[in-house]
Amino acid sequence: MGNESHYDHVVLISLDTLRSDALSVHPNPLWPHDHKDVHPVRTTVLDDLARGGAYFPNMISAAPYTAAAHGAIFTGQYPLHNGIHEFYNGSLRAPSVFTYGRRAGRSTILKTDFPIILGPQLGFTRDVDTYLVEDDDAFIEAVIDSESTLACAHFGGVHVPYGFHNLTFGGDDYRQKVAELTAGLPESLPFNDLLVESHRNPEDTELLVSYKRATAYMHSQGEYDRLMQLYLEGVEYFLENRFAPFVERLRERMAAAGKRMLLAVFADHGEAFDERTNGHFNSMAEPVLRVPLIISGDGVEPGMHTNRIRTIDVAPTVLDLAGIRTAATGVFDGRSLAAVARGTEALDGDAPAIAESYNAELNDFVAYQKRQLSGSTPGPLQHFLVGHAAYLDDKRVVRLTRHYSDWFLKTTPTDMSWVERFDADGIPHRDPDADGSELFAMLDDYRTALREPDQVPFTDEIRGQLRSLGYSV
């Protein structure tokens, strides 16, 4: 890495579940090809950030769910290499951006909206000095009060319930939306998704479950356009009501303190709706895996870079731009794009990429989480490979090994695969005549790193941290 930079603060912002083409500034959105009765929404704050920074609209996530996706982002390593590849298992073992930030003498700060996922249970608080939950103002204060930082603010406002996250941020608008969505629903529905990512009081929990039941029913009725419109409207609501004010406060406080900031905004995965996909957790759909990256700060050259990059490129790029040294060369699976962000090099060609989804049966996961949050030892949670994808040049291959049915409550083994080719606008089309042998070999070679995952520990330290967050354990 380079010499120590002039950035006082390095701030990462994760917008959970933001597909790349949700941004109005996106050059070639995918959703108009899949949804004919959907209209775009305002994404002004992100559009302005994209136009004023190095904007990468074609970044491929390593996994379609929060834990493994963030593990890859924070470490620059693929999930099978860093310790977290399943939906909820293992522990982050590889050095992270927080590790390198702390070694460089910076205060490290993590604020998350999903403490059950991005928390101590999976090792995400390791090398984090200040850990905050759902407190945007406290995050800004913690950054400004420190001489120098490497900090990350994670937002769940684009995740279901789209736009709101919870009652604290959604209020009566959230209550009204749930009432609107649930009006006229059948009295009895089989859907029973009781999973939560954060602490919720009884009313908040009931609202979330009702919201998810409504969207599951819409999906069962094939109302994919309505779901997509609901998602996009949630993006707009979150950006206007929570994110834009946050960015404005952060920039104002930074300017008042006379500090210089490197800002990197990204997503962990997107959201999609079709016969196989209701959201993201099990999907290899291109809109789920393609996410945005925006980098801004002094010395960053504004420009759009449309060639394919990977989420594993985020950590080496940010650390390089910030002048934060890493322990050794070869520590990352990704590559630094710092020269591209500075405008001294062009982004040449599309990077090869891999994505995989490992999951558990929904009812098993719900029972596991109930045991965990009650304070008892949750025991093992069996996961299985759902599917994976590989990218090389203008092609990608998708191989599915599990099929979800019955309102996504059950899975059955399957063996489906196909090759897609990207056109000049980056739109994937199935190509039955394309040779996918190199891409299948990429998947097979990657899976040689698979090893038995560590079970999620439930130590006294973790129990104490959960109590401090309001859980009864």
TrEMBL record:
One of its GO terms (molecular function) is arylsulfatase activity. InterPro entries: Alkaline_phosphatase_core_sf (IPR017850), Sulfatase (IPR050738), Sulfatase_N (IPR000917). Residues 9-324 form the Sulfatase N-terminal domain. Transmembrane segments: none annotated. It comes from the Bacteria. Belongs to the sulfatase family. This is Sulfatase N-terminal domain-containing protein.
